[in-house]
Structures are given as C-alpha cells and as structure tokens.
Amino acid sequence: MKFENIHGVQIPKIGFGTWRIGGKRSVDNSLDEISMQALQSALALGYTHFDTAEFYALGHAEELLGNAILNSKISRDSLFITSKVWLDHLKYDSVLKACEGSLRRLKMESLDLYLIHWPNKLIKLEETFKALNQLVREGKIKHVGVSNFNLKDLKKSKYLCETPLFTNQVPYSLPENKYVKKGVVDYCKQNDVLVTAYTPVKFRNLTVNKTLKSIAEAHGATPFQIALAWLTNQPRVITIPMSFDPQHQKENLEAADIDLTADETQTLNQLYPR
User: Fold this and answer.
1) Would the pLDDT of 107 be above 90?
2) What CATH number should be reported for the domain holding residue 129?
C-alpha cells in the first residue's frame, strides 16, 4: 500500500467510503447485514481509512461503522476515521452538536478528520470554522477539511483554519474533471491540501473502454484498478472507493500498488475530453 505523508500524518492512498452503508438518504435496515459484512471484510483486508458522514443513512452508517470497529478488536489508534458535518448544521452550536452526535454513533472519543460536507452560502464560513477550531482545541477532532468546495471557498477555508487544512473531498475520476478545470486540484497539490477523490470509478464505459482494458491487461489488473491507480499515482491525491463485494474490496486496495508508466499516464490523461 502506498501512503501520503502530510501534516504529520501517514494516510493510505486507498480508503473505504461508506455511502450506501445502512442506506442512502434514509435508514434502510434491510441493508444492515450486508453492510456489516462489507465493513468487517474491509477491516479484515487491512483498510485503515474509513470515510463516513452524519448524512449517510441519517447517521446509521456511522453506527454500523462504529459497531464493526468495536467488534473487530482492531486498535482505534491504527485507524484513520473521517466524518462530515451536514450543510444544515454549520452554525457554531450546531457544528459542536453534530460532532458530538457523530462521536456517539461511532463510539469514539475523537475523529481523525472532520469535514464540512457541503458549503452553505447562508452561513458564514467564519462561524463554522470558529466551531471547528474549537473542536480541535478540545481534542474532539485532530484535523479539519472540506468537501465539494470551489477555489474561492477553499482558499478562504485555508485562511480560517487554525491548523493546516487537511483535504478537499471532491468528485474526481478519469472522466470527471470539473474540479481540475476550476483550478481546485492544482491548488490543492501546490498548497499541501489533499485531494480526496470520491466516486472514482463510477462512469459508464469503464469496463468496455479499449484503452483501459489494454493497460489493465499489461498490468494483470482490472480496468477498475487502472482507474484507481491513475488517481493514486498522482501526488497529494487519495481516494475512497466502496464495494460490498470482498473480492472487489481486495482489488481496490491492491490498485494502489500499481505503478503506471509515464506513457500510460499520458494516454489516460488524454482518454476523455478535458
């Protein structure tokens, strides 16, 4: 496994996202069994970075993740846990309350990383960061980040954060380059802010694209792994794919060990309109 070393933290290039664990926008208890199996499998395979949010299944994803970690007997110190505060909860008192809720559901005393899930133009970033900085001082969270932030809000967040801003989590994949065009990805790479790529392999022609298949065959890999490797080969970029399938989880984790050649990287860079 490859890692990024940033702000005194070693974080794996491939983490595990928990969107769809226990439901999506609401709780779906019919998914509890398969969700717990997926989390237990990921922990057993060696995933150490888990990304969740109070919005995912209305907090149920956090509950399931907390239970899976507790049952695994894996040391909390060996894991890196990220959660997010929802855009309706960005006022000072609401941020503090939301964090307490996430910690309670996760059965943890602190979070390694806490993100603003989406910006909210009706609530000033100054107020939100006042709360986030306070949570750092109290030891409730160790690092602060943002998600889905444009360049202007990202720069402001970096200024308002009393500790080094850790990440901007954005949709980023071979065909998804909106945040590249907006200058966000380059800004992050140049200013020691991690890019956390979500939905890294969610695009239609991934499995049938001839170029992807050819590069995959050269590495004895799958097209999914090559799409992930394209991300993990980039400096200051990590990603958080999710799968319920243990075999796919294993393949995702192994994708970080694929070294693409300069020619392969260039070919992939030109694979979709940019």
Assistant:
1) yes
2) 3.20.20.100
Residue 62: give the domain boundaries.
3-202+235-243
**Smallest Cα–Cα separation from 48: which of 14, 5, 8, 9?**
14
Residue 208, SS3 per DSSP: coil
On average, the pLDDT of the chain sits at: 97
H or E stretch at 126: helix 125-138
Q: Write the single-letter amino acid at 217.
A: E
Tokens of 175: 């065909």
Q: State the pLDDT at residue 207.
A: 85
**Span 17-35, pLDDT tens digits:** 999 999 999 999 999 999 9
Spatial separation of the C-alpha atoms in residues 146 and 153, rounded to whole Å: 9
In this structure, are residues 194 and 6 in contact, taking their beta carbons and an 8 Å threshold? yes
| 26 Cβ neighbours under 8 A, 6+ residues apart | 57, 58
pTM over 0.90: yes
Specify the number of domains making up the chain: 1
Active-site positions read 56
